[in-house]
Amino acid sequence: MNARAPREAVIKMYARREDIHPREVKGPFATLRWACVWLTQALFYGLPWLSMHGRQAVLFDLGARKFHLFGLVLWPQDFIYLAGLLIISAYGLFLVTAVAGRVWCGYACPQTVYTEIFLWIERRIEGDRSARIRLDRQPWTAHKLGKRGAKHLAWGAVALWTGFTFVGYFTPIRALGAAVAHLNPGPWEAFWILFYGFATYGNAGWMREQVCKYMCPYARFQSAMFDRDTLIVSYDAARGEPRGAARNSAKGSDRRGDCIDCSLCVQVCPVGIDIRDGLQYECIGCAACIDACSGVMDKVGRPRGLIRYSTENALAGGWNAQQIRARLLRPRTIGYGLVFVLMAAGMGTALALRTPLKLDVIRDRGSMGREVDDGKIENVYRLQLMNTGERPHLFHVGVSGIPSAAIADEDLVELAGASARAVPVRVRIDHGAARTGSNALTFTVTAQDEPALRVTEKAVFIVPR
Q1: At 374, which CATH number?
Q2: What's the pTM?
């Protein structure tokens, strides 16, 4: 007898995406989430249109290699400040995560914000959750095509405006707006507007929770910053189980747990998880399930808090709010907080003491030093001056370190605000004033109208044999 051939099994490495249609929910956390949407978008869309000192207040001018930040002008040499800002932001995120979990993801992350905006558009055009599900199941008709077309046109308009605004941080937005209005933007500007518009449209309109679940690395390493005292969106199983509505029997009341198994907490979840299954990495901490459950508890006459922000220790020990707050200050949060404060203070001090004048000295290597007609020794240099402030200045260039050293050219240099200039300079000394070979020399540049604005830079003067 022949043995049966083994049956083949297909193992899928990626689960097929199921459409999620979150139900609209109202409550204090939903209000807070929309407040964050309005705040972040007012800043994002509004900042490029602000002007300061006659130019865009926030502009990352890559062509001119200058970053304008509310009157502060940063050059490539100031990259250390950008690195410091990124490190401070990272530690701020670590601190917030250790205290309150993924609140950044739930309220202020661009993916969450734009998904919320696109969902709002979808609800206004296609209807509530049940209407959208019915529309999905319907065959393609003129009615369905019209609704879907209107939704995607609205999504596209928001996405393109977002791409335009983003490019406006790198190209002066008023000039960019005039070019787009005349359908004549530069090729790179047009490419990046379309690119970021498409990214916004795809991420917020189509991929949504897939970005949070599969593409965002933060979901993967967040557990390294969690501990048993981190505030997370939690379901109180001891109070909620067993699930089901209260029942009356002949012998009296057979009361189950407070969870009536209405599944509203699942229906409002933007990533489609059931919070009653415990902490899951997909949870973005948006608290939509808290608002939904609180509304249900009000209707059935039971206290709120079946789903709430809590900690693992609090749930296990039955702690009250005061006991939870007492654990906010613990070694992990104190460490993150100290590093954050120290770095922020250091960055603020460095920016406050930063001199808005930079000087680089480059000696002309084509001429190692020469004797001129009057018997003096001459070296040629190029001074790279950068006025990182917004005001123009008249600068005096001086030299010291060798007796009789003097500038053979005009020693006054005018420099506009937020500009750079290369200045050729000839330095001469008397014959015999310095030894043969290399000699230390110091250049000093001082603003005529502001003597405190002063920088020095060392150089080398070569005396030929």
Answers
A1: 2.60.40.10
A2: 0.84
